[in-house]
Amino acid sequence: MAERVNYAAKLGNLTSVNSGQINSDPDTIGTVAWIYQSEMGDYAEAGDTLYNGWRHRAGESGLGLWGALRILSADVATDPVFGLFGYGCEVNDNGSAYEVTPLDGVQQRLHLIDEEIYIELNRDQYTKAVVNKDGTGFTLTVDSNGTGDKHDLELEVYGLAAGSYQIQSGITPEPLPPRKARRKKVVVPVTGNGGEITVTKTTLRAG
After folding, report:
1. Model-level pTM?
2. Distance of CA 78 to the CA centre of its chain
3. Rounded to 5 degrees, what are φ and ψ at 144?
4. What would the DSSP string read from start to end of 135-181?
5. Between 7 and 170, residue with greater pLDDT
6. 89 close to 104: Cβ distance less than 8 angstroms
7. Do residues 196 and 170 make contact, with C-beta atoms less than 8 angstroms apart?
8. Cα dihedral sign for 40, 45, 49, 55?
9. Which is it for strands 109-112 and 74-79: parallel, antiparallel or unpaired?
């Protein structure tokens, strides 16, 4: 139940972007308003116009939208009513792993709420993820948005099972140092056109 409220809060700032609820004029779709006046009264600052309760100026709304982009994610949780549910994503349970297709628009953060596994990219986007439920590895399909150049992608991972891991990025496999902390950052070289990044557990416990 908590995840419903959590994800609604993540989307809250996006309600200030006009998709028709502020003004139906096609020229205004995608613009942003500053404040919603719930009483729908006539009050407005000098020079302001109210559109369906929204003040027409942007104000500092851009700061809120920047914050929204910094927290948007694909969240997977088990809802007490609906069962397995993807917030900002489509999710399938294949038995030992979850297959996730992100739909949040940013496509850089994935959270498995029940398993407490969190994955974040510092650049590029992932278009698909397969994450083992027991925290022993995952595969990301990464889109580099046509940059065309080889570059380093920083992955921040939290909640994997203790042990050593190998990373395969489509270039050369490399070891991930034994995980002693629950949070780990690692730099992964990727091709200019993206590809798959696979993280696989190789030992039972950290040495």
Report:
1. 0.83
2. 18
3. -90, 10
4. SSEEEEEEE-TT--S-EEEEEEEE-PPSEEEEEE-SS--EEEEEE-S
5. 7
6. yes
7. yes
8. negative
9. parallel
